[in-house]
C-alpha cells in the first residue's frame, strides 16, 4: 500500500527506514470510483493526496457552466487545491478522480508537522511548490500567442500521459481549445 510513496520519498534523499515507516503512518488509504469529487468548490482543502493508482483532475467551472481543467495528477504525484490548503480559505476549484483511483491522504496538520520535523519531507514540499510554479509559468507563457497545434505539441512533450489518459473534452479545456480541434490535431500527429 505504501510502496510507491516510500519509493518517492526515498528518491528525494537519505532517510532511515524507521522514519520512512513513521511518515507512512500519517497517510490513510482511500479508494475512489471514477468521477468522484474529493473537494467541492468553496470547500476548504484539508488534505493532500498522493496518487498510488489512477488520476485526479483539478478544475473549475466558469459562470456560464464551462469546465476548465487546471491540472492533472497521475501516479507518484501529490495533488490538492494548493491555495486553499495553504491559506485555509475556500477553494476556487474542484478535485475529482477521473479514473478509479487509490490515493494516500494526509491531513494538513500532519503534512505540516512532517514538513517541520523531517528534512526530506520539507524538501519534497519545496519541490512540489517549485514544480507547481514552473509548470504554471511554462503553461501560461508557453500558451500566450500560440496556436492550437503548438499547444498540443507542448502537451505531448511536457505531459505525455495527459493525452493518453484524459478525455478529449478535459484535455481541450486544459489547452484552451475545442474538443473538435483537439481531435483533428491528434489525428494529424
UniProtKB/TrEMBL annotation:
Domain Cyclic nucleotide-binding: 35-115
SMART domains: cNMP
Cited Pfam families: cNMP_binding (PF00027)
Entry-linked InterPro entries: cNMP-bd_dom, cNMP-bd_dom_sf, RmlC-like_jellyroll
Domain of life: Bacteria
Name recorded for this polypeptide: Crp/Fnr family transcriptional regulator
